[in-house]
Amino acid sequence: MSIANHTDSGPIVRIENLNKWYGQTHVLRDISLSVAAGEKLVICGPSGSGKSTLIRCINQLEQHQQGTIEVLGQALDGKRLEQLRRQVGMCFQSFNLFPHLTVLKNCTLPQTANLGVPVDEAIERALQLLDKVKMRDHANKYPSQLSGGQQQRIAIARALCMQPRIMLFDEPTSALDPEMIAEVLEVMTGLAEDGMTMICVTHEMGFARKVADRVVFMDGGEIIEQAPPSEFFHAPQSPRTQRFLNQILNHGAQPA
Amino acid sequence: MNELTHVVPVRLPPQATPSVRAWRWVRQSMFPSVGHSLLTLLVLALLAWCIPKALNWLVLDATFVGSTRDACNPHAACWLPVIERWNLFVYGFYPEAQRWRVNLAFLLAVGAFVLLFFKRLDRRALLAYLVMLPLLMWWLLKGGAGLPGVSSTQFAGMTVTVMLGTIGMIFALPLGILLALGRRSKKPVIRLLCVLYIELVRSVPVISLLFMASLMIQLFLPPGVAFDILLRVQVVLILFTAAYMAETVRGGLQSLPKGQYEAAQALGFGYWKTMGHIILPQVLRQTIPPLLTQFIGLFKETTLVMVVGVLDIVGIASSTAASAEWAGHDHEIYIFLALYFFIICFALSRYARHLENNLEHDRS
User: What is the ipTM score, two decimals?
Assistant: First the structure.
């Protein structure tokens, strides 16, 4: 199934001179970043480096104070947010499935309520995508009956049901037990192979090596370095990147 | 993913025989120490002394049959004032031929709770019922559109209590939800208005609001225009309860994880869709028990309408106790009154408890 069949040739996301403050704290400093259609970007960096804030700005869960963000060729100006968000899928660290709805309803409600898709069509699409993340058998369960890894895979299917042009992942495996990380990464890898444009904030360096077209390293609200994974892991330029890689690779992150 | 299924044989905890368990319970809960044992004996003695006496006075020697005060046993309770005036207690001065309307309204009100009991009921059907209920009740009781009208002065007794309570609850809840949402609104004007309203109403006793409704509203209306007194107290009770409910609902809104709002936003839900589909269904399920507690409060507060001249069941009781016919039997009348409120409020609180258990069960 090819999800990314774009017609416009420009970048999916273009960020220029982005600045953001929380009160007096400067959390994003002069960020410029561009993501082409079909590109897979991994953003890494120490905690508090602003990487989650950055991707949350892309679907405007956070508002920025300076600079421009263009998504699908449209500059974000705080208007028509719902239309934007329907084309930008997002997965959270804490899954955020709706606990009062079944798995299937979690996947169909956004379609019927926000895209106006007829119910049977929505169900069909939901089941197809649940099948893709190997959760079809659990369609009638409630989220609380499932493990974290299963919930995250459903969250991915739910986001895909909206047929987004780009997927944002905000540390999707950080809240998971080690044995469940693999199943979620497997789904994400499959998605990448289908050609989906992806921006992932993650500490999974094995995933970055295998899937990413480009790895972005952030620290202190700035982009320190960005490079294809082969370069990034073998010849990091900045001393800060080197220190970070040393720390994270020596602490059990499995090599790909 | 993991196919490991290791079968472990079932082992049950050791069980004591019932007699051993009973003995253990008595020892643990009644005689765990010398001090406790003395207290237990004291309480048992007290109960042994007063229960037979109370039983004799309340039931065994009491008078249930007769029609005038001469039939009463002077040394025990006389329930004749309640029995003889039963219809007055229930229907007030409602025209006798029309009493079926009151019965039907009672039945409809009870029906709402019966329906809420079924978890798997279609939400829309339930909602439609709850929306129709107050309108139907008002129409049935007050008349109009085919039914002969009944004047508000003929309303008294349980009819008033149940009507004010049920209609009040159903209108107060949506208003309370709107106020709660308004209080958390990002728009400063809406937020300010809601905060002002909620804080103002919560810091004024309901009795003064009722006085305001009965005395002051008339001042603002052009002469000749009369606003039905029953409608006025009903509106006051709704506005008052809504302010409290708003705070309960706000608590529920705040306790919901922020991720729920974010996930809804990220999926393109707008404000009202987020609230209607995602947030309120979760919040209301959580807040059903405290909301029912507020209903119990509202139910008891309806008795305050007496001060503005609406004769609810307490009004009937006091006028019965003061009547020449039944003077001197106020004990029995007020015991009956207490029992009436106890039964309804206790049933409601058990019901709230049941819903709470159900919800806990759902979440595990």
Answer: 0.89
